Amino acid sequence: MIIGLLGLGTIGRGIYEHLEKRDDIRVKRICDLLRHPGLEHLETSDFREVLNDPEIDTVVELIGGMEPAHTFTVQALSAGKNVVSANKLMFSHHMEEILTLAREKGVQYRYDASVGGSIPFLHNLMRHRSADRLTGVSGIVNGTTNLILDIMQREGRSFADVLKEAQAQGYAEANPSADIDGIDAQCKIAIASAVAYGQYVRPEDVDTAGIRHIDASDIIRFKGMDRVCRLIARSTRNADGSVSAWVEPTLVPADSAEAAIRLNNNIITVEGEYFGSQSFTGQGAGKDPTAFAVELGLRDILEGVGPRMNPLPEGYADVDNARAEHPYYLRTAAAPGVPAKPLGDGAWITEPMSVRDMHALAKRLAEQDEATFFAGICG
Question: Which position among 188, 223, 287, 341 bears the catalytic label?
Answer without folding.
Answer: 188
